[in-house]
Amino acid sequence: MIKVLLVDDEQIERDALQVILEKNFSNLVIKQAKNGRVAIEVAAEFQPDLVLMDIKMPGIGGFEAVEKISVNYPHIKFIMVTAYATFDYARFALKLGVIDYMVKPSKVTEIVEIISRALNRIGTEQKLLERDKYQQDTLQKAMSVFETDVVTQLLFDHVHEVHLNELVEMLDMKITKEKFVMSLLLPLGSEVYYSAIREKVREAGSGWIGAFYGRQLPIIVFRKQDQSYRSQATFLARELLKLVNLDGDAEWFIGIGNVCSSLDQIRQSYQESLLATRDSTIRVKYRFYNDLPTLVSGFDEQTSKQYEQQFFEEIRSGNWEEISTTVTSLINRSEQEGTNLLHTQQHLMELFWLVSQLLNEMGAELESPIYPFQSTDYRQLRAETSHLLEKLKQSYEERHARLEADTIEQIKQHIIEHAHQDISLDAIGRVVGLSPIYISKIFKEQLGVNYINFLTECRIEKAKKLMRDPEKSLKEITFEVGYHDPNYFSKVFKKMCQVSPTEYRKNIHA
Fold this sequence. Notes:
- By secondary structure, this protein is an alpha/beta fold.
- Helix content is 58%, strand content 10%.
- Helix 9 links the parallel strand 9 and strand 10.
- Helix 5 runs antiparallel to helix 6, helix 7 packs antiparallel against helix 8 and helix 10 packs parallel to helix 12.
- Keywords: DNA-binding, Phosphoprotein, Transcription, Transcription regulation.
């Protein structure tokens, strides 16, 4: 329904107009106002789509009323009504943005024609607004899904810097040079808090939230220049912890990695944030990686980080020979340097804890590995360590063996069939029963491309087919293949095909 307000100081004029409108138009809700002052009051409450405004009225005249109403309600359309059709009136009406002019008395046919034009214009604008609102709502939902995929790609796969810049444009968020990762360790079933966590991060400033991986939720936080790193991280951690009533048995805990300045280092910050959640029994329920106590004296920090980083990459690659070599190297070095045996065993436990965390993320269900007893010499330590590694390897291979031979084909087919939708790794994971991280890993291993590149290829191939239809506009094709912004679609298309969509279409129809 379209709401119309009739403003005239003559009751008979208002009533006559209302009769004409009701007789010729069925989709109107009509109200009246006897002068400019009343019109302003009624407009505030009624918020009409169209106002037929008399110019000459006692007190506040028509032009003044239009000015006052338009300040607060710029979407309202006005048609001026007057018995004095002068050039000055017309010029002033145009200046105010009035859409039409009606001289009284007018023939019924003229009134109907003028009102029809106005209603058609209003109807068209309302449809455009509804479509824009729908697209904005859809885009907002897509951005939330897209955001989790970007985090997954950054932390667990290789994303080219140029490609990332395009993704950032889509997310409409300013990316800063410095960034760090926070890992939330939450009880199983905490997915109900996901929306609230996302809202807290947005309120606090720039940050991207990943997907839940078991009990863990990663957040990439962009550094603010107007406050220190520790202040920013502490504030966000406390805000997130407010979402639950923490008691002595609360399982919420937040690990905070160090600040980094490149994409290569972001995964190290993520690894540090995981390590910072190692002991979740402390009272404050969050910890910076740099504040971890030195559990193992005899290992300098740089050496420890080197071993941890090697583990991080080798486990993700499933390279168990290299993992065994790394562990053996660590034990041999410790023995040669005369490191206390207990300290060496403790440090190995640190590394095995990291192994178990990563394997859990990849879908291998296992408990944290522990030594059954304290080793009495390095020979015994080697034997027990080899046994623990074998158990971890077995868990990894059992998980790998449970995958059906056609899993990748199933994933590929799902992406091809749903490429036009706001599909995500998380959604695919629910279809095939795998974690988003593991999907990203096996996709890259078996197909040689990451998930985003494959999805992009599917969309571009579909766009090429749709371009054969000359009746379809590029804007329609953009939405049909799954993009929400024609400009971004053009950028992606040109990057993939070396020509713009317009040039490609000209070539195929030449």
